[in-house]
Amino acid sequence: ETKTLIPDKTVQTTCTYCGVGCQLEVAVIDRKIRGIQAPKTAEVNEGHTCLKGRFAFQFYNHPDRLREPMIKKNGTFEVVTWEEAYDFVAKKLLYIKNKYGANAIGGFSSSRATNEENYLMQKMIRVAIGTNNIDGCARVCHAPTAFGMQQSFGTGAATNSIEDLKEADAIFLFGANPLKGHPVTGAKLKQAFMKGVTSIVVDPVKTTLAKLATHFLQIRPGTNVAILNMMAYYIITENLVKQDFIDTYTEMYDDFKNHVLALDMDALSELTGVAKTLVKNAAIAYANANRAMEFHGLGVTEHFQGSKTVMLLSNIAMMTGNVGRKGVGLNPLRGQNNVQGAADMGVQPHQGAGYLDVNDPEIQHYYAKKYRINKMPEKEGLKIPDMLNAAIEGKLKALYIMGEDTIMTDPNTNHSIKAFENLELIVVQELFMTATSKMADVILPASSYFEKNGTFTNGERRVQRVNKVIEPIGNTKPDGQIIIDMMHKLGYTQPTGLTYDAAKIIEEIADVIPFMKGLTWERLGTNGLQWPINADGTDTKTLHVNGAFKKGKGTFHHFDFEESPEIVEHGTNYPFILTTGRELEHYNSGTMTRRTDNQYLLAKDYLEVHPKDAKRKGVTNDDMVKIFSDRGSVTIPVKISKNVKKGVLRTTFHQPEVFINIITGSVGDKETLTPEYKVVAVDFEKI
Ligand code: SF4
């Protein structure tokens, strides 16, 4: 007998996982969340969710949830009151600040948390502590997108909206597998591919979309710059550039053109492993389209030449006039629900809220006035990898971490552990006892996204409401409330009052960030607003219309391919290139999805191995192998797959049993230090 359950109430909110930002309708019965559906009226997802979003509630009251503040005493966590925890942390932070200076303290913020909480977190580190040592998880994903697009266009965010897909007659997908990482957008792309749109995929892995694409360039991992230089070469030599657009709206094109024309296509074809004709045909298809829309993911950014690749993608769009109209542009598939928002709010060591340069004395004065203090910190802060190095060198003494499992997600785990062991104080605000929480001195239990109000900003710059569904469980508090309390203990009282009120924090954000001027809680409604949000509340679907680049003109940059130091230094002893990716069932480190039914669907990470490599190593499906690099080794089951080329391995990183970051390295994007998770020199053997 089946029984129909009628919810006591339903509340619309925004999914906590990926940067698509789907709207979810959450059903509550007897004060418990019992199910999720997607509202058909939601502009972003139009009644759809993915496998992750559908079950995105089961972790919230999991027995593993941290429910009480705790302080570690003699190696064991003991439950304390909030007052005891706050006093302990504040006393210790002020002691470290007095003894070593404010720059001995750092903060890691979180794309899991709301805009308001990220804004408060960066404010606490800058205003109540007095340092720019604030960074976030964009450092391990899309920092090169923000940096690269700022260099090219002046603004580090998606130029267009996902709805533009309906207008594009060519789609260029580079280094992304949205069917797994951004499933609702991925499904829209799949529909377009199946309907026969011109589609170009560049990836070292033969993904489902690659199989459906009209053009697929299966490159050797790490050769993105080389393949884009080839595409630019053929666009120029086939006379497919939009010279009017270039002359009117851009600068430095001739330098780029001359650089590209001097390149040796045979050599680049050899490097990338892709035949010249394939690249030429793809370049012609892209440039011939009336509206070509580009999407990229971590296969672009998590590389030694990540920022450079983003700038070259911008070049390709500009030289063909594919910027500033509907159905075109550069559209980074932001990995996390609020990674765009966290950067907008100032979770970066070199730019404060609204991307203003913290090194500029006028900007320092601007922030000091807005934050009602006398003086802002003057020196640019450290990025996460630099903070970890500073901890090892004994220069950084304390880390305050909000919702980030650094130990599991950052590369070279043993290096991270060494850094953490050197710290005098580690404070972690978290939902669960993660690998990072275990190393904390103090744990402050946070409320999940169901238990608070706020906003997330999705990958198309859309600020959307996060609506409270239930009261905070146990003795947890919203991250925003914890930060306000902590700032107060540190001697700074938040002008909006001592109670976290998202609507009031939004008023302050709108006052501080110029491109959020018209943002209010009420105006967001059920479908949000895309920034820039004008004073009258109107928003912006397309950036750079009529060449309106923030930096005046769009700028061309030129670069040569450079082999990753990972391959140069370790490639001889470790002849396989490991690249990492995601599965549909799980979200990043799996902290949340491993505590939902998704874990029943997929409970293992696998190593994908080409059949010829498997034969040579004497392994078959489900054999356990040891995979090792210069940093260490892990064991993992094998899945034989023709989706990777010979010499290339692929794995995921959702399960702590494998802990893949033990073997990933310290090479990062030169400009932003984003780790090169996509090129790891390894070898493997059957156990
Ligand atoms: Fe959530 Fe992303 Fe799935 Fe949408 S596509 S339901 S935002 S995980």
Automatic annotation (TrEMBL):
Domain 4Fe-4S Mo/W bis-MGD-type positions: 8-64
Entry keywords, A to Z: 4Fe-4S, Iron, Iron-sulfur, Metal-binding, Oxidoreductase, Repeat
Superkingdom as given in the UniProt entry: Bacteria
A GO CC term attached to the entry: membrane
Gene Ontology molecular function: any one: metal ion binding
One record GO biological process: formate metabolic process
Keyword Repeat appears in the UniProt entry: yes
Coiled-coil residue spans: none
Similarity annotation: In the C-terminal section; belongs to the prokaryotic molybdopterin-containing oxidoreductase family.
Protein name: Formate dehydrogenase subunit alpha
Origin organism lineage: Bacteria, Pseudomonadati, Bacteroidota, Flavobacteriia, Flavobacteriales
